[in-house]
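Data card: per-record layout.
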Amino acid sequence: LMMNPSTASQSSSDPTVNQMIELAQDNDCDALQVVNVSSIIDSNSNNLSDQDFTIDKINEAFIKKRWKMLI
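The structure for this 71-residue chain is written out next.
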């Protein structure tokens, strides 16, 4: 569970996601699920306000669905 995408999208990676992929591979993980609390793309999370991290119903449902897949 991550804060927000830096420059990544559903179809392209960014340095943070690349680091997570490398960590997963180094630990012989078969998959990596990346879920962000906020969907706002900004490489500096200091630019985001508390409201940007308010979880709406759609995002909450997605997070819960992914969480259930993990446990």
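Known properties of this structure: The CA atoms of residues 22 and 61 lie 28 Å apart. The chain is about 35% helix and 0% strand.

See the next section for split statistics.
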